[in-house]
Amino acid sequence: MSTNSTAKTRPLVWLVTGCTSGFGRLFVPAILARGDRVIATARDIESLPEISNTKDVFLLQLDVTDSQESLYAKAATAIERFGEVNVLVNNAGYVLSGVWEEVSHEQVVDQFRTNFFGHMNVTRAFLPNMRSRRSGTVVFMSSIAGWLGVAAGGPYSASKFALEGAVESLQKEVCTLGIRVHLIVLGQFRTSILDDNRRKISRPNPAVDDYNSAVNTLALRQVDTNGKQPGNPTLAVERILDAVRREGMMATREEIPLRIVLGSDAGQIVRAQCLETLQQLDKLQEIGRSTDFLDARGIQDYK
Ligand SMILES: NC(=O)c1ccc[n+]([C@@H]2O[C@H](COP(=O)([O-])OP(=O)(O)OC[C@H]3O[C@@H](n4cnc5c(N)ncnc54)[C@H](OP(=O)(O)O)[C@@H]3O)[C@@H](O)[C@H]2O)c1
Questions:
Q1: Count of other CB atoms within 10 angstroms of residue 126
Q2: Ligand 1 center to 176 CA (angstroms)
């Protein structure tokens, strides 16, 4: 993997999706404070009153659910403004909760259109330019929900699990082309994501009583957690900037891995999931091996 693709000696041009709130909003001043330039994007750029176009800031309307054709056009406009985009931050997202039986196909597709296809399509629009320059960094805002499914948390978890898998492949596709890729596995951070007007819970009328407990438990937890999340998003943004620019706490790291797990809650969950997976593997190892062909040893590893 190229390690000098985003050398810190010159200002970098960042493009961040979903800048009206939370992490996206915090990225803009943090990027400028490092001496870099930023293309701040939002579905509605009128919702960015504190940000205006300057020599280092460019406001661009961008809905990540737009068509691929439109996203290619947005990428061309973005690249034209400062001559290049060095760092793409796929940040836009929202939380849809609901149990399998009650959440509709259309609602889940909408969740994926933003949290999964949105990231994939926006990235696809920028890859040709990064590839031709053999340089660039693509950041994806993932989640502990992409490691652990909770009851009634399926739609959001599914979108983040899908993202984790697809980005793992992307990293292997572009690591020899000078393009760095990072998944930021976030714990619970104090943004607006759990505000009543942002998170969505799917409950039909009438609802299935059998699921009252699962749905109400998650909904109550979201309400209780909102505003008390352990993670400080300002500090998370600083660590992401450190990683991309290889500065601060990341300055002396030889290799920065694909996954950057932020938040002590996230660290605990990822660790527990790894341990539980190992335990489950060990319990059924013999059975797992029992289905191989006899000539399986000669076949190339899957990686
Ligand atoms: N906060 C956490 O605890 C946490 C944990 C794990 C992962 N994450 C991830 O971090 C990312 C940012 O979340 P946040 O906590 O900053 O939430 P937030 O405060 O709710 O901000 C979400 C942003 O995404 C934007 N957005 C939603 N749909 C969009 C679309 N179709 N096109 C463009 N922008 C869109 C929103 O814009 P509008 O104002 O137009 O709606 C808003 O600017 C998300 O991907 C989320 O899944 C957050």
A1: 23
A2: 30
CA dist., res. 266 & res. 185, Å (int)? 7
Ligand 1: distance of its center to the CA of 218 in Å? 19
Which residues, including other chains, have CB under 8 Å from residue 18's CB and lie 6 or more apart?
24, 41, 42, 43, 64, 91, 92, 93
Residue ranges and CATH numbers for the domains of the chain are 13-288 (3.40.50.720)
Q: Which residue has the tokens 């009252």?
A: 212
Nearest to 91 by CA among 135, 40, 53: 40
Q: 297: exposed, middle or buried (C-beta count within 10 Å: 0-12, 13-18, 19+)?
A: exposed
Q: How far apart are CA 151 and CA 34, in angstroms?
A: 41
Distance CA(136)–CA(6), nearest Å, equals: 6
Q: Which residues are catalytic?
A: 156
How do residues 159-181 score in pLDDT, each as one tens digit? 999 999 999 999 999 999 999 99
Q: How far is the CA of 155 from the centre of ligand 1 (A)?
A: 15
Q: Which residues line ligand 1 (CB under 6 A)?
A: 17-24, 42-44, 47, 63-65, 91-94, 114, 118, 141, 143, 186, 188-189, 191-193, 198, 229
Nearest-CA neighbor of 187 among 115, 90, 278, 259? 259
Average pLDDT of the residues in 180-199: 97
